[in-house]
Design goal:
Number of helices: 17
Largest sheet: 9 strands, parallel
Structural class: alpha/beta
Shape: globular
Number of strands: 17
Strand content: 15-25%
């Protein structure tokens, strides 16, 4: 009898442990999905659905085809999602909805070349409301592929380019954690890569994302298979890959200018708070060679400069950094994230991924600031060299990484480019025609035959780049969103963030 009771006790203990494990897993599952934005109520996109009608925007100032000046007193005719005519004294179709453009300035819809939607569908509305009519998701999932199809069928949102999740070399428990919690695709067996590339292409992804901790062997395998399968690879420069191996590779698009800062830091031997000036001199000396190599090999680089410039501010005071952005539009789950011991993408002070630890010695703060300001300056030096050498620089923001608020962050990025030496026209081109041409899209220019992606502004952005924020209406793929529409979108997203259960 005693043995039987012990056996029953053992079974109950097993059941109890399984129950506790299941409960713990359930809690963690909820927390992980919340951190990526799943549980914020989704604003009904049908509330903002529009049709591709006939439109005439009359008597406006229109950005020239070369993006250098505004053409006055122009009328833009749109039919079935395309621009049909641009000119003065045009006859208006009888069925056209007329939009008065007197005193307005029309530019192409903006393209954010590097975003992260995660599981935050409301961000699609934030992009539209900010005049961003095309985004490139660089950590994509099947859910994003579904959103892409829905947008193509009329769901309000920017056109989507979807690259795969990040690929790192990892296996076993680490690989499982990467896949589930960090949304990284682990790579273990090199022989599996050809099949994986075929699966990626068959699924409909636009590109394969390469990440920092991908081994050189895995990188070269992806490089070869992507070339054989005619699918683009893009992303980070793998940590152990020397630049000499990068130039001849198929990795023709680098997801951040800062990838070259990191590569130069490795060449330099690692800079610190006490040798920032020497490091910046080294970056200056190497910048022209790197820019010329990029140009020679027809490689593009995404800017993400505003994010890098935010690092010192977030290190100094997260609260202050957040006060300068529209954090009320950020998905609450993403902002609140997980416990700080688990690095995801938290924004708020207690979970912010860039904050200094609470016990960080105060006397070391000035040195920390020197380090991160030098990091930002190195990015600026490289961007200036890229500009001078006509490298294809694509404006991108890394949106949803703190403190880059989806949609709003594009205007921050344009301002950052101008601060670093770009003319307003050059910054605009990096967010319109440059990226569109790189992607082979018929958008990014206000001209007949182009997709009707337009932003109507109250003031001239060629005079002051901050005028891209003064939006008086957005047309996305021939669908018109008035100021009333865009303000309603923003309010709906704010309201959704307020009602989410975050307990």
């Amino acid at each position: 009898m005693k043995a039987l009771n012990l056996k029953k006790l053992g079974l109950w203990l097993v059941v109890l442990l399984l129950a506790l494990s299941a409960t713990s897993f359930g809690v963690m599952y909820y927390q992980v999905n919340k951190a990526w934005g799943e549980y914020v109520p989704v604003v009904d996109p049908a509330l903002y659905a529009k049709t591709q009608g006939a439109y005439a925007i009359t008597n406006a100032n229109v950005l020239s085809d070369n993006g250098q000046y505004m053409r006055p007193n122009q009328t833009v005719l749109i039919q079935e999602g395309k621009i049909t005519k641009v000119g003065s004294d045009l006859s208006l179709p009888e069925d056209a909805q007329v939009i008065d453009g007197i005193g307005k300035f029309i530019i192409p819809g903006l393209i954010d070349a590097h975003v992260h939607l995660w599981q935050s569908a409301n961000d699609l509305l934030l992009y539209l409301a900010n005049g961003v009519t095309h985004v490139r998701e660089l950590n994509g999932s099947e859910e994003h592929l579904q959103w892409r199809a829905e947008i193509a069928s009329g769901r309000p949102g920017p056109d989507l380019f979807v690259a795969t999740r990040r690929h790192n070399s990892s296996s076993g428990i680490a690989g499982l954690f990467d896949r589930w919690a960090a949304k990284i695709n682990p790579v273990a067996d090199i022989d599996d890569i050809p099949e994986r590339v075929n699966e990626i292409k068959d699924a409909g992804y636009d590109a394969i994302k390469i990440y920092t901790l991908l081994s050189n062997d895995h990188f070269f395998a992806f490089n070869e298979e992507a070339g054989n399968s005619d699918i683009q690879i893009l992303g980070h420069i793998p940590y152990n890959l020397p630049l000499s191996e990068l130039w001849p590779s198929n990795l023709k698009e680098i997801a951040h200018v800062e990838e070259f800062v990191k590569a130069l830091d490795r060449e330099f031997g690692g800079y610190g708070r006490d040798n920032t000036e020497v490091f910046l001199e080294f970056v200056e000396k190497r910048s022209t060679d790197i820019a010329s190599r990029l140009a020679e090999n027809n490689m593009a680089v995404v800017s993400t400069l505003a994010l890098v410039e935010s690092f010192p501010a977030q290190k100094m005071s997260v609260e202050s950094a957040l006060s300068h952005v529209h954090v009320e539009h950020v998905n609450r789950g993403i902002a609140e994230a997980l416990h700080p011991s688990i690095k995801v993408m938290g924004w708020l002070p207690e979970v912010n991924i860039y904050r200094l630890p609470e016990d960080y010695p105060e006397e070391r703060v000035p040195g920390n600031q020197r380090y991160w300001k030098a990091y930002a300056k190195a990015n600026q030096i490289l961007l200036q060299a890229m500009r001078d050498n006509r490298v294809k620089v694509l404006a991108g923001t890394d949106a949803n990484v703190p403190v880059m608020v989806p949609g709003f962050s594009m205007h921050d990025e344009l301002a950052a480019l101008v601060r670093t030496g770009y003319k307003p026209a050059e910054a605009l081109r990096s967010a319109t025609a440059e990226t569109a041409q790189w992607m082979g899209l018929k958008t990014g220019v206000v001209a007949a035959g182009y997709q009707a992606d337009l932003v109507v502004l109250n003031s001239n952005p060629l005079v002051d780049i901050d005028n891209t924020r003064a939006i008086s209406g957005v047309m996305s793929n021939g669908r018109w969103y008035s100021p009333k529409d865009t303000q309603a979108m923003l309010k709906a997203v704010r309201d959704a963030n307020e009602v989410v259960n975050v307990n």
